[in-house]
Amino acid sequence: MPGSIKTPATGSGTKAAEAVIAMEPGKAIRAIRGHLPDGTADYVAELLRGHLPDGTADYVAELLQGEHFVGAAVEVRSVRARRSKLGDHRAPVRGRTIHRITVNNDLNPYAFLTTLLHEIAHAVTWEKHVRPRKPFSRRVRPHGAQWKSEFGQILAPVVERGALPEDVSGALARYLQDPAAATCSDRGLLVALARYDAPDPARKLVEEVAVGAAFRVEGGRMFLKGPKLRSRFRCYDAKTGVEYRIHPLCRVTLCGD
């Protein structure tokens, strides 16, 4: 792998007032408060390293301490896998200064990196384009032009420096041409990322399950597969009959297997 990746010019400089990283579910948050001393980037990078591809942790650590977050903080947590999303971002509320980011803990390193950068772009967009524009922040759409620009700037160094496999880099390069609202809505990118999941012959993609067949998701809940809608499959809880929309690339276990 190549050496460290340089952060975009707009993401370097003064360090943030606080960095919070919680990379293991159930473990206490590790926090650094006050003006971050020299060496903090190394500390944050070490916490991230086990979840990210080689050669990218330092870059992400620097992003989390960039000048965009002066007077603010970013909290990153890996959380139990969710069917509806790979990650999310919650902006500061009620005068608080902490951005909260979660990423599913079952993602392979390349998917974890892509999702985390996606959410960091939300935090940067909020600090640069929403906070300064209040009370006119409604003009900044969650996945509008500002977010696409910030995400592109954050993701481009990872693609350009060859820190990722060729198929993932190619999918990300195409994705950067018009980033979707969620990485899980880009099939080409999802397929490329899924190639690096740990092999599990007992599990199938929802799109591979026959309509009408029963399957279980992580956690044990049973569903019956229904027809495909625009981008997801209509599925029904086997006990309650409640309808759910499940992504075609969600990995499940066939009942009886």
Shape: globular
Low-confidence stretches: 9-19, 24-37
Biggest pleated-sheet summary: 6 strands, antiparallel
Structural class of the secondary structure composition? alpha+beta
Radius of gyration, Cα only, in angstroms?
Answer: 19 Å
- What letter string, H or E per element, gives the SSE order? EEHHEEEHHHHEEEEEE
Strand content: 15-25%
State the total count of DSSP E strands: 11
Mean pLDDT comes to 77
End-to-end CA span: 39 Å
* Strand line-up across the major sheet: 6-11-7-8-9-10
How many individual domains?
2
Number of helices: 6
Q: Roughly how much helix do the residues carry, as a percent range?
A: 25-40%
At a glance:
The chain contains six helices and eleven strands. With 257 residues, the chain is an alpha+beta fold.
Description:
- The chain is of the alpha+beta class and 257 residues long.
- The protein has 2 domains: 9-194, no CATH class; 203-254, SH3 type barrels, CATH 2.30.30.
- The chain is 30% helix and 21% strand.
- A 6-stranded antiparallel sheet has the order 6-11-7-8-9-10, with no helix packed on it. A 5-stranded mixed sheet has the order 2-1-3-5-4, with helices on one face.
- It is globular and about 55 Å long.
Please describe the topology of this protein.
Blueprint: E1 18-22, E2 30-33, H1 40-49, H2 57-64, E3 73-79, E4 87-90, E5 98-104, H3 109-130, H4 145-160, H5 166-177, H6 187-194, E6 203-205, E7 214-216, E8 222-228, E9 233-237, E10 243-246, E11 251-254
Parallel strand pairs: 1-3, 3-5
Antiparallel strand pairs: 1-2, 4-5, 6-11, 7-8, 7-11, 8-9, 9-10
